[in-house]
Amino acid sequence: HATLHNRTPTGTFKVNGTGNVKIGKSGMHVSSESIPPTQIITRTLGGVGVSHDASLYIDCDRNIRSIQNNDSDDMNSSSPQNPSQSPEDDNMLFIQEADNTTECARRSGIIYDELKINKKSKLGSGATANVLRVTHRDKPYALKIIPYGYREVKPTVIIQEVKCLHDSMDCPHIIELLEAYHREGSVRLLLEYMDCGSLEDVYKVERIPENVLSQVTCQILKGLQYLHEKKQIIHRDIKPSNVLLNHRGQVKISDFGMSRKLEQSQAFHTFQGSFMYMSPERLKGESHSFSSDLWSLALSIIECCIGRFPYDVEKFNVWNYTKFISEEGLNLRENEISDDLRHFVNCCLHVSPDKRLSARELLQTPFIMKHNPDECTSKVKSFLKDVYIAKKKAIREERQRRRQEQQENGN
Question: What is the model's pLDDT at position 221?
């Protein structure tokens, strides 16, 4: 075997001689004594990853684990022995990391150091992450930067997001993860770029008509059906800002930091996510399952349709809001939404989780079936092009005109 963990002058790893990445029966790891400028956390095709300071760890069965954190609410977050102490054996494998990338990224040509990053090109920001627009060979991507080590950012949250995205690569309604890196004290996820932003961006420019919203909802439901039935994943943070669109009319679910995998009879009790979109059982700290995502979806769809959140949350704190939504039905004006949409929403907003329809069942409701669910991008594509993008351009030009007038008047 070659001598391990010796760092090269460029700070990268090479095979057989000057710094290797080691994979044994217990998994793959890098010595914490010599951390390269960029470490790959996971490779999306091979399912192999490296640890960072013995905190993030991916074993040979592609289980992504946290070694230093043992939150009871996180799936697959057991704490194996420190991988740097694993014995060498005949099954030891060495792979080259001389160009700071994985075999997967080498095939796609995406190397972190070749990304063009403009920190002013911000696509969005939240309490624990920022998203930048970056390019590689003139093709745009989204780079989600999650600072590592803050109290608000648990390793298991990062693990969950990477794992759920990795496991959902074959679903066209889930945002695609291309690569994940560790650099400059943060985990950085390279994601596909959705050029029309989020549902929140869209409806704040123009309320989304029901025939378009039906096709948007159809795609979200297909994504949720995939997560719930094939992967047993609860998203737990469905809201307009976490649903992205592109100019082709494609709609994709993003931001899996709050997601969890439901194991057989297991249920979750934690209070995480945006409280205004939470189902009553989640707000009460009771066990919750897949149906909680459908409650959140219904409120999100209504918000996009009427141009505002259906409840005046500013007058509520989380406790009286919980009581209100548990006892009061959705109070909308008579002609504010169609009967089909009202029926759809009512199927999702039962206080009792057992009475809510599943994603599969909701795909068969009149609100979805009426608007050509087999081709669920055509109306979305036309609306984005003819209304949203056109109006957004007009707003931008008007702002530029006013700014120019102010400058001229100032002179």
Answer: 98
d(CA 284, CA 298): 19
Q: What is the pLDDT of residues 291-334, one digit of tens each?
A: 999 999 999 999 999 999 998 888 878 788 888 888 877 778 87
Q: Are 65 and 76 in contact (CB under 8 A)?
A: yes
Give the strand pairing for 21-24 and 251-253: unpaired
Both 219 and 108 in one domain: the answer is no
> Can you tell me the distance from the alpha carbon of 42 to that of 178, in angstroms, rounded to the nearest whole number?
10
Low-confidence residues of the chain: pLDDT under 50: 1-37, 40-107, 264-265
In a shared domain, residues 49 and 177:
yes
CA-based torsion, 240, 245, 249, 250: positive or negative: negative
Q: What is the pLDDT of residue 150?
A: 62
Q: Which of 59, 167, 237, 255 is catalytic?
A: 237
Residue 152, token pair as written in the block? 């608000």
- Which one of 148, 169, 193 terminates a domain? 193
Task: Find out whether 144 is annotated in a ligand binding site.
Answer: yes
pLDDT tens string 267-283: 555 556 678 999 999 98
Same domain for 159 and 24 = yes
Distance of CA 88 to the CA centre of its chain: 37
90 in active site: no
Q: Is residue 4 part of a domain?
A: no
| 50 and 172 share one domain | yes
Question: Is residue 336 included in any domain, yes or no?
Answer: yes
Q: Do 280 and 330 fall within a single domain?
A: yes
Assigned domain for 57 exists: yes
Range of the domain at 253: 199-386
Domain shared by 250 and 176, yes or no? no
Specify the number of domains making up the chain: 2
**What is the predicted pLDDT for the residue at 266?**
52
